[in-house]
Task: structure prediction
Amino acid sequence: MVIPLSLYIHTPWCVQKCPYCDFNSHNIKHGPDYTQYIEHLLCDLKQDLKLTNGRSIHSIFIGGGTPSLFSADLIAHLLKEIQNIIPFESDIEITIEANPNSVEADRFAGYILAGVNRISIGIQSFQAEKLIQLGRVHSPDEAIKAANLAKELKINSFNLDLMHGLPNQSCQDALLDLKRAIEINPPHLSWYQLTIEPNTLFGSKPPILPDEDCLWDIYQQGHQLLIENGYQQYETSAYAKPGYQCKHNLNYWHFGDYLGIGCGAHGKLTQPDGKIIRTIKTRHPKGYMEGRYSEKTYTVPIDEIPFEFFMNQFRLHEAASKQQFIERTNLTLPVIEKPIHQAIKNGYLTEDQDYWYLTEKGHLFLNSLLELFLEN
Ligand SMILES: C[S@@+](CC[C@H](N)C(=O)[O-])C[C@H]1O[C@@H](n2cnc3c(N)ncnc32)[C@H](O)[C@@H]1O
Ligand SMILES: C[S@@+](CC[C@H](N)C(=O)[O-])C[C@H]1O[C@@H](n2cnc3c(N)ncnc32)[C@H](O)[C@@H]1O
Ligand code: SF4
Result:
């Protein structure tokens, strides 16, 4: 069985850093040279090619930062050159993340001509006051226009990113945001609960967030609303209409392989001898643009592989295939007999001949369950 190979491309710039965000992104005021960056991405890819062993690309995710700061011509050039370096599978999914500012939304049609077939728009909220608190540089009107534009362009799929549990947000406000998103009817909706990350402005000056009861009500009622409107939850924060799950994310969570190019991107590449190589690229654009792409490359120790497999797999709301464990880890089932037995005894898992099933208790005590694979 050939392990699917995805490609993640990181673009490290944004118009303005949002106070909650700890993604690797830098303010554009330092005047990035986008054209030069694309050439570095291509060199970076060529250097990783030896790790791919002749496989084609299953999905591409151009993430950020704000990839929609790049013109459609540059994205077209990037995708064309990538295809000259490595072949694409015929039904490849190509996603670009976009901010809803009008200038960037104007580029959507050009991205589609360039080969992009999935656009992921960072809406966050439809309420002006919330967008200001979140330091966003777009208005609710721009958010609605960008989402409707993606819909009119009739691409394979588009996604809206929405956040909930925002500072001073009531349950009613959060549900109103979700209803507005559902009205647009995107095939895919990512609905994230705001987390306060240590290395951010919110981390150093935490805003007042809704209490636990309110967060629980938002989640319960929002989840119900999504289900009633035909969305299926396939990961904690990922909802999709049937057939519209994101192939790129699924490949990560199924412990597939991926190349990671660009600042701070990471990759996972299984080699013919069964070794799993991880790559980490230089985080800062300065070092990266001087041609120092690689920060670290290492082989995942064999005794950490089961933990890594299950950490990804158990994010998904589906049974875990035993056959896939064997194929993706190059290990045998007896290697994990002890932790699996313990997990079943603790009520975290059930199993049949072909699959393991996470129980409700397993969901609640996911960290304890995963720790069992580290003790092995
Ligand atoms: C790389 S960012 C999105 C790209 C794009 N620059 C944007 O902001 O529209 C991916 C998504 O992660 C979510 N996100 C970022 N920081 C978060 C946080 N601290 N808590 C919850 N969700 C977060 C946001 O919904 C964001 O759209
Ligand atoms: C969480 S998803 C964004 C979801 C988005 N809302 C959507 O459905 O389009 C972003 C994808 O990019 C990948 N990714 C983000 N940062 C990365 C990095 N530094 N290196 C490699 N992959 C990364 C994630 O693992 C994931 O598959
Ligand atoms: S949320 Fe998006 S726009 Fe805001 S800093 Fe993070 S990557 Fe940039």
Notes: The chain has two domains: 5-251, 320-376. The radius of gyration is 21 Å. Residues 212-228 form the longest helix (17 residues). Residues 188 and 314 are 20 Å apart (CA to CA).
